[in-house]
Specification:
By secondary structure, the protein is an all-beta fold. The chain contains no helices and 11 strands. The strands form 2 sheets. Strands 2, 4, 5, 6, 9, 10 and 11 form a 7-stranded mixed sheet that branches. It has a 4-stranded antiparallel sheet with strand order 1-3-8-7, with no helix packed on it. The protein starts with a strand and ends with a strand.
């Protein structure tokens, strides 16, 4: 049975950094992603990658500030978030798929496995 468990969220001042972790268990996943859902907003893609970290995608709003990575030995997905802004405040979710999604990475319906979410709050 697949399970994704996130950690690392918290309260940080604007300009600060946080690193989110997502430990995966169960089947072998081919694709991973981080989504977020801010107050009164739809869930949106933040970043995505494949298990070998060959293909990497970032939402325009987080490019050059956030970095996604995978430690295959630990079955753990990470999201390093730097220079955080108040508009980054959201619940962050990791997601995984047993399929290589390629250019379909941003569609949340393509991910069958989700973590419980971790709150990130950025104060101004």
């Amino acid at each position: 049975q697949a399970q994704l468990v996130e950690s690392g969220g918290g309260l940080v001042q604007a300009g600060g950094s946080l690193k989110l972790s997502c430990v995966a268990s169960g089947p072998v996943f081919e694709s991973y992603a981080w989504f977020r859902q801010g107050p009164r907003k739809d869930r949106e893609i933040v970043a995505a990658t494949d298990k070998s970290h060959v293909t990497v995608y970032y939402a325009e709003a987080v490019k050059d500030r956030f970095f996604i990575s995978v430690d295959r030995a630990k079955n753990t997905l990470y999201l390093q978030m730097n220079n955080l802004r108040p508009e980054d405040t959201a619940v962050y979710y990791c997601a995984a798929s047993e399929y290589f999604l390629g250019s379909y990475y941003s569609n949340r319906e393509n991910y069958a496995n989700w973590g419980q979410g971790t709150q990130v709050t950025v104060s101004s």
